Amino acid sequence: MVYSSFGIIALLIHIIINYDVLRNSNKDESSANKTYRHFLNCVMCYYISDTLWGILYEHKLIYINYFNTVIYFITMAMSVFLLTQYVIEYLNEKLLFGKILFFTGRIYFVCELIVLSVNFFYPILFYFDESGVYNAGKVRYINLFIQILLFLMISAYTLFISLKKKSRRGRRYRTIGFYCVAMTIFIFAQIFYPLLPLYAIGYLLGTCIIHTFVLEDEKEERRTELEKLLKREQLRKQELGTVKNMAYTDSLTGVRSLHAYSEAETSINRRIANGVMKEFAVVVFDLNGLKTANDTLGHEAGNRLLKDACRLICNIFKNSPLYRIGGDEFAAILEGTDYNKRKELLLSFNIQIEKNLKNGSVIIAAGLKEFYPGIDRSLNDVFKQADKKMYERKQLLNDMAQQM
Fold first, then answer.
1. With the C-alpha atoms ordered 325, 330, 335, 337, is the resulting torsion angle positive or negative?
2. What count of other Cβ atoms lies within 10 Å of the Cβ of residue 231?
3. Residue 244: predicted pLDDT
4. Exposed / middle / buried, residue 271 (Cβ in 10 Å: 0-12, 13-18, 19+)
5. CB contact at 8 A, 206 and 10
6. Please, what are the averages of pLDDT over each run of 10 residues along the chain (404 residues)?
7. Hey, which CATH number is domain 258-403, 3.30.70.270, 3.60.15.10, 3.40.50.720, 3.40.190.10?
8. Within 10 A of 134 (CB to CB), how many other CB atoms are there?
9. CATH 1.20.1070 in the chain, residues?
């Protein structure tokens, strides 16, 4: 039972360590990953047959154990072939030696099936005597010797390829190569101790090493690459956001730009066309005296005048976006709270401007027009009427200034 107990423990550890690989399968995975999963399944079958072998052998169930031993050798040969195929696909090097190694593994597996077939009639691989004692044939030793050669070939191949790789991939190649060297040692020991689970120990050690230092390292490398991609994407978004913010913001006044107004116009026109835009208003503003300030006091004075004008408008129309659509022209689109209070806000704004007219502060003419569904077809229709009212207000302010 000691022999079988180790097989059970090896099987449980095998499933626990490789659960994620055994469970996950998708169409997009690489051929190397598929082959490795097949290899793990084959090793799992090997553990099961190896465990049953100990139980059946202890209870002298010769005939059942004979067929179980056939499965044992089949899974052993299949696992060697699949490991060979996995290494070749994983390295993905178009070398002649790799092709030779691949066909050698396949030929070995086919020969093993032939030997097992012959063994039914001539016990050249193994047999059980009348007392139920297991006896190894000469071909068994040839079989293990061929496996040693295959593992040494895999080891030499991976270590040779790893010399050309100076990254984490090279370290993974060397891990596989050193595991194959270790496996040859366990197989060599199995020749002299056929009733010890040395072969199973080698596979358990190997699959744990590959999972920890190859598969997990690949996952870590992919996570690192993904983090780099995410950082680059975030940086790109930040750069795009910065560029977009620059394009949508007037550099002098800090209010929204003509480009932003054009985009808002497109959005509102789309909502009007879809019948979902029910109410909004446009206020057009025009700053008086900008040209005079630039010509007589300089552009710095003109810039201060523009900033004062924006500050005044934003202080009153607090909940509405303000756009600079020309040198001294601005527009605000009123929705929600400001739309509901549009008359009070415009009256408050005009009162402030008339105060400014008396004390010589910034003068801004404003004209407001509401959108009427079914009559106005676009934002521009509303803008034109607001612009007309702004000029009427501008004329009134000029008249008031002349009367002072």
1. positive
2. 10
3. 56
4. middle
5. no
6. 81 90 77 92 93 88 92 94 93 88 93 94 91 89 92 92 82 91 91 84 91 87 82 72 65 86 90 89 89 76 85 91 90 92 92 87 92 90 93 87 73
7. 3.30.70.270
8. 16
9. 2-230
Q: Which residue has the tokens 């549009």?
A: 342
Whole-number pLDDT of residue 247: 64
- For residue 240, the model assigns a pLDDT of 61
CB 238 within 8 Å of CB 305: no
pTM for the whole structure: 0.62
HEC string for the chain: CHHHHHHHHHHHHHHHHCHHHHHCCCCCCCHHHHHHHHHHHHHHHHHHHHHHHHHHHHCCCHHHHHHHHHHHHHHHHHHHHHHHHHHHHHHCCCCHHHHHHHHHHHHHHHHHHHHHHHHCCCCCCEEECCCCCEEECHHHHHHHHHHHHHHHHHHHHHHHHHCCCCCHHHHHHHHHHHHHHHHHHHHHHHHHCCCCCHHHHHHHHHHHHHHHHHHHHHHHHHHHHHHHHHHHHHHHHHHHHHHHHHHHECCCCCCECHHHHHHHHHHHHHHHHCCCCCCCEEEEEEECCHHHHHHHHCHHHHHHHHHHHHHHHHHHCCCCCEEECCCCEEEEEECHHHHHCHHHHHHHHHHHHHHHHHHCCCCEEEEEEECCCCCCCCHHHHHHHHHHHHHHHHHHHHHHHHHC
> Quick one: tokens of 294?
């630039």
Segments of the chain assigned to CATH 3.30.70.270 = 258-403
Q: Return the CATH number of the domain spanning residue range 2-230.
A: 1.20.1070
What is the C-alpha to C-alpha distance for residues 261 and 249, in angstroms, rounded to an integer? 10
Rounded Cα distance, 199 and 197, in Å? 6
Can you tell me the distance from the alpha carbon of 170 to that of 403, in angstroms, rounded to the nearest whole number?
A: 90
Query: Measured between alpha carbons, how far is 386 from 149 in angstroms, rounded to an integer?
Result: 91
Residue 245: per-residue pLDDT: 61
